[in-house]
Amino acid sequence: MEWAEKWYDNLWAPWRMSYIKNFSGTKNEEKNEKNKCIFCEAQKLDMKEALVVFKGKFSFIILNKFPYNSGHLMIAPYRHVGNLTELNDDEMLEISKLIKVSIDALTKAYKPEGFNIGVNIGEAAGAGVPGHVHIHIVPRWKGDANYITIIGGVKVVPQSLEETYNILKPLIEEVSRNLGL
Protein backbone atom coordinates (compact mmCIF):
# COMPACT_ATOMS: atom_id res chain seq x y z
CA MET A 1 0.00 0.00 0.00
CA GLU A 2 1.73 3.08 -1.26
CA TRP A 3 -0.47 5.50 0.73
CA ALA A 4 0.39 3.76 4.00
CA GLU A 5 4.08 4.43 3.48
CA LYS A 6 3.41 8.13 2.93
CA TRP A 7 0.55 8.85 5.38
CA TYR A 8 2.83 10.59 7.87
CA ASP A 9 3.83 13.22 5.28
CA ASN A 10 0.33 14.69 5.31
CA LEU A 11 -1.44 16.74 7.93
CA TRP A 12 -4.95 15.28 7.83
CA ALA A 13 -7.84 17.14 9.40
CA PRO A 14 -11.00 15.10 8.74
CA TRP A 15 -12.87 16.85 11.57
CA ARG A 16 -12.81 20.08 9.52
CA MET A 17 -15.15 18.70 6.84
CA SER A 18 -18.35 19.28 8.84
CA TYR A 19 -17.21 22.85 9.51
CA ILE A 20 -16.53 23.45 5.80
CA LYS A 21 -19.80 21.78 4.72
CA ASN A 22 -21.64 24.15 7.04
CA PHE A 23 -20.74 26.94 4.59
CA SER A 24 -21.53 25.07 1.38
CA GLY A 25 -24.85 25.04 -0.45
CA THR A 26 -26.38 27.90 1.51
CA LYS A 27 -27.59 31.20 0.13
CA ASN A 28 -25.42 34.20 1.01
CA GLU A 29 -28.16 35.79 3.14
CA GLU A 30 -28.58 32.58 5.14
CA LYS A 31 -24.82 32.25 5.58
CA ASN A 32 -24.59 35.75 7.00
CA GLU A 33 -27.33 35.07 9.54
CA LYS A 34 -26.33 31.53 10.42
CA ASN A 35 -22.55 31.88 10.29
CA LYS A 36 -21.34 35.29 11.34
CA CYS A 37 -17.75 36.04 10.42
CA ILE A 38 -15.49 34.81 13.23
CA PHE A 39 -12.88 37.46 12.41
CA CYS A 40 -15.36 40.35 12.50
CA GLU A 41 -16.96 38.97 15.68
CA ALA A 42 -13.53 38.57 17.35
CA GLN A 43 -12.92 42.30 16.95
CA LYS A 44 -15.95 43.03 19.17
CA LEU A 45 -14.83 40.80 22.05
CA ASP A 46 -12.23 40.98 24.78
CA MET A 47 -8.85 39.90 23.36
CA LYS A 48 -8.49 36.85 25.59
CA GLU A 49 -12.10 35.75 25.08
CA ALA A 50 -11.62 36.02 21.31
CA LEU A 51 -8.18 34.34 21.48
CA VAL A 52 -6.61 37.42 19.86
CA VAL A 53 -2.92 37.48 20.81
CA PHE A 54 -1.98 40.71 19.00
CA LYS A 55 -3.71 43.74 17.51
CA GLY A 56 -1.90 45.80 14.90
CA LYS A 57 -3.06 48.95 13.15
CA PHE A 58 -4.61 47.10 10.17
CA SER A 59 -4.70 43.43 11.18
CA PHE A 60 -4.52 41.02 14.10
CA ILE A 61 -3.21 37.60 15.14
CA ILE A 62 -5.69 35.10 16.55
CA LEU A 63 -5.40 31.50 17.75
CA ASN A 64 -7.25 28.96 15.66
CA LYS A 65 -10.06 27.59 17.83
CA PHE A 66 -9.77 24.26 15.98
CA PRO A 67 -5.98 23.96 15.62
CA TYR A 68 -4.14 21.49 13.43
CA ASN A 69 -1.29 21.68 15.96
CA SER A 70 -0.50 23.58 19.16
CA GLY A 71 0.31 27.16 18.26
CA HIS A 72 -1.81 27.28 15.08
CA LEU A 73 -2.23 31.00 14.41
CA MET A 74 -4.23 33.01 11.90
CA ILE A 75 -3.58 36.56 10.73
CA ALA A 76 -6.54 38.56 9.43
CA PRO A 77 -7.12 42.15 8.38
CA TYR A 78 -9.72 44.14 10.31
CA ARG A 79 -11.57 44.84 7.06
CA HIS A 80 -13.93 42.12 5.86
CA VAL A 81 -12.50 41.30 2.42
CA GLY A 82 -12.35 37.89 0.79
CA ASN A 83 -9.21 38.15 -1.33
CA LEU A 84 -5.62 39.31 -0.90
CA THR A 85 -6.09 41.47 -4.01
CA GLU A 86 -8.59 43.59 -2.07
CA LEU A 87 -6.05 44.54 0.61
CA ASN A 88 -4.25 47.86 0.39
CA ASP A 89 -0.46 48.19 0.64
CA ASP A 90 -0.51 49.08 4.35
CA GLU A 91 -2.58 46.00 5.18
CA MET A 92 -0.37 43.71 3.08
CA LEU A 93 2.82 45.08 4.64
CA GLU A 94 1.55 44.69 8.18
CA ILE A 95 0.26 41.17 7.50
CA SER A 96 3.69 40.24 6.08
CA LYS A 97 5.35 41.60 9.21
CA LEU A 98 2.91 39.70 11.42
CA ILE A 99 3.82 36.48 9.62
CA LYS A 100 7.42 37.15 10.65
CA VAL A 101 6.34 38.00 14.21
CA SER A 102 4.32 34.78 14.40
CA ILE A 103 7.15 32.59 13.13
CA ASP A 104 9.62 34.18 15.57
CA ALA A 105 7.28 33.78 18.55
CA LEU A 106 6.30 30.21 17.65
CA THR A 107 9.96 29.29 17.20
CA LYS A 108 10.81 30.66 20.66
CA ALA A 109 7.83 28.96 22.29
CA TYR A 110 7.72 25.56 20.57
CA LYS A 111 10.90 25.08 18.51
CA PRO A 112 9.07 23.53 15.54
CA GLU A 113 10.96 21.80 12.75
CA GLY A 114 9.01 23.67 10.08
CA PHE A 115 5.90 25.68 9.27
CA ASN A 116 2.95 25.54 6.92
CA ILE A 117 1.89 29.04 5.93
CA GLY A 118 -1.10 29.35 3.68
CA VAL A 119 -4.22 31.11 2.58
CA ASN A 120 -7.35 29.58 1.06
CA ILE A 121 -9.24 32.04 -1.12
CA GLY A 122 -12.84 31.03 -1.79
CA GLU A 123 -14.96 28.04 -0.79
CA ALA A 124 -13.61 25.91 -3.65
CA ALA A 125 -10.10 26.34 -2.22
CA GLY A 126 -11.25 25.14 1.19
CA ALA A 127 -11.69 28.50 2.92
CA GLY A 128 -13.69 27.93 6.09
CA VAL A 129 -14.47 31.67 6.22
CA PRO A 130 -14.48 32.58 2.52
CA GLY A 131 -15.57 36.20 3.00
CA HIS A 132 -12.68 37.25 5.25
CA VAL A 133 -9.20 36.49 3.97
CA HIS A 134 -6.77 35.16 6.57
CA ILE A 135 -3.37 33.49 6.66
CA HIS A 136 -2.76 30.26 8.58
CA ILE A 137 0.57 29.66 10.32
CA VAL A 138 0.91 26.08 11.52
CA PRO A 139 4.04 24.91 13.36
CA ARG A 140 5.12 21.44 12.24
CA TRP A 141 7.23 18.59 13.59
CA LYS A 142 8.23 15.35 11.93
CA GLY A 143 5.57 12.76 12.67
CA ASP A 144 3.01 15.25 14.01
CA ALA A 145 0.24 13.59 11.99
CA ASN A 146 -0.06 10.23 13.68
CA TYR A 147 -2.02 7.03 13.22
CA ILE A 148 -4.88 7.94 15.56
CA THR A 149 -5.54 11.07 13.51
CA ILE A 150 -5.98 9.12 10.30
CA ILE A 151 -7.72 5.97 11.52
CA GLY A 152 -9.72 7.41 14.41
CA GLY A 153 -10.38 10.87 13.00
CA VAL A 154 -9.06 12.30 16.28
CA LYS A 155 -6.40 14.98 16.52
CA VAL A 156 -4.45 15.08 19.76
CA VAL A 157 -3.41 18.64 20.58
CA PRO A 158 -1.37 18.45 23.79
CA GLN A 159 -2.00 21.99 24.98
CA SER A 160 -5.15 23.93 25.84
CA LEU A 161 -5.95 27.12 23.95
CA GLU A 162 -5.61 29.07 27.20
CA GLU A 163 -2.08 27.75 27.77
CA THR A 164 -1.16 28.50 24.16
CA TYR A 165 -2.56 32.02 24.51
CA ASN A 166 -0.61 32.67 27.72
CA ILE A 167 2.64 31.45 26.16
CA LEU A 168 2.35 33.20 22.80
CA LYS A 169 0.82 36.58 23.71
CA PRO A 170 3.89 37.99 25.56
CA LEU A 171 6.29 36.58 22.96
CA ILE A 172 4.31 38.08 20.08
CA GLU A 173 4.14 41.44 21.86
CA GLU A 174 7.93 41.38 22.40
CA VAL A 175 8.76 40.45 18.80
CA SER A 176 6.28 42.98 17.39
CA ARG A 177 7.82 45.77 19.51
CA ASN A 178 11.24 44.84 18.16
CA LEU A 179 9.86 45.25 14.62
CA GLY A 180 8.29 48.60 15.47
CA LEU A 181 4.69 47.41 15.26
TrEMBL record:
Domain HIT: 38-147
InterPro entries from the UniProt entry: AP-4-A_phosphorylase, FHIT, HIT-like, HIT-like_sf
GO molecular function: hydrolase activity; nucleotide binding
Origin: domain of life: Archaea
Keywords: Hydrolase, Nucleotide-binding
Keyword Hydrolase found: yes
Span(s) of short sequence motif Histidine triad motif: 132-136
The protein's name: HIT family hydrolase, diadenosine tetraphosphate hydrolase
Species for this entry: Caldisphaera lagunensis (strain DSM 15908 / JCM 11604 / ANMR 0165 / IC-154)
Taxonomic placement: Archaea, Thermoproteota, Thermoprotei, Acidilobales, Caldisphaeraceae
